[in-house]
Specification:
300 residues, alpha/beta, Chemotaxis Receptor Methyltransferase Cher, domain 1, Rossmann fold, 2 domains, five-stranded parallel β-sheet
């Protein structure tokens, strides 16, 4: 049985208010599939019954579970390959030429999910940074659940088979029972922290490189523009932004320069923001009560 229009509207509104992710009509199947396991955990007959209970009890923990379930995205090692090839062939050489061979680069992997992206970045940097240079990688995500897995750095055989080259597996992971463990050396390079892209940028900048891949596609134009503006605030003037293959700053925020690299593109700030300039914000009523949310329909 498909999720009802009322349940879908409530969930869509909750996710929009907490994460700015838009669940448009037609995504009912996603809500049904993502929340079915939560319904079963709670002994509910189906997703509709689960949502009705959540609405009546109005527990913050239940709201958080729903948002986490709907905002956990697909991930894999070296996803799309081009951003990692660009890091090695273009980004690192450019930055080292500007900062010197003993530079300490700062990288932000936003919406890092279960850690495959920041660890892929770490593996790439291990291959291309000069021996006298170093890097710090900040990896953030909205979901504490996926961050816990990322910090642990353990992956199943199925997970390591998704994009991880055998040479990298042998060099950077070791078998622990039926799983594979990221080396301590790589784990030391990455700091994982909870962060919502609707909030002010995390501390740790200014960043030389920001990976924000396959995330902007879920937001409306106003939210995309606000996020890109915040990124410029915490990037170095010659810093580099990596977006997903289906994403661009063009037509969203003209304060970026698109630079073709290999089979893809990177972006550089055209107008870096001074720290004293007020940050644009989007509405963030995530602390509002949700017991009576969405009696109006799915358009709110």
């Amino acid at each position: 049985m498909a999720v009802s229009a009322e349940s879908f509207a409530f969930v869509a509104d909750l996710v929009r208010r907490r994460s700015a992710i838009q669940l448009a009509p037609g995504k009912e199947y996603l809500v049904e599939s993502r929340l079915l396991s939560l319904a079963r955990e709670d002994g509910a007959a189906d997703v509709d019954a689960f949502v009705r209970t959540v609405r009546s009890s109005a527990k913050e923990s239940d709201f958080a579970r729903i948002v986490e379930a709907l905002t956990t995205n697909e991930t894999s090692w070296f996803r799309d390959s081009a951003p990692f090839a660009a890091l090695q062939s273009y980004v690192v050489p450019e930055l080292i030429a500007a900062r010197g061979t003993s530079a300490r680069l700062k990288v932000w992997s936003a919406a890092c999910s279960t850690g495959q992206e920041p660890y892929s970045i770490a593996m790439t940097l291990a291959d291309c940074l000069p021996a006298s240079a170093s890097a710090d990688i900040l990896a953030t995500d909205l979901s504490e659940q996926v961050l816990a897995k990322a910090r642990e750095g353990r992956y199943s055989q199925l997970e390591v088979n998704r994009g991880l080259p055998a040479t990298m597996l042998v060099r950077h992971l070791s078998r622990v029972g039926a799983e594979w463990q990221i080396s301590q050396a790589l784990r030391n390079l990455v700091t994982f922290r909870q962060h919502n892209l609707l909030d002010l940028p995390p501390i740790g900048g200014p960043f030389d490189v920001v990976y924000l891949r396959n995330v902007l596609i879920y937001f409306d134009i106003a939210t995309k523009r606000a996020i890109l503006e915040r990124l410029r605030r915490v990037m170095k003037p010659d810093g580099i932004l990596m977006l997903g293959a289906a994403e661009t700053t063009i037509g969203v925020d003209d304060a970026w320069i698109r630079v073709p690299v290999g089979t893809g593109s990177v972006y550089r700030p055209n107008r870096p923001l001074a720290a004293s300039v007020p940050i644009s914000t989007v509405p963030q009523p995530r602390t509002a009560p949700y017991s009576s949310v969405l009696t109006r329909g799915a358009h709110s």
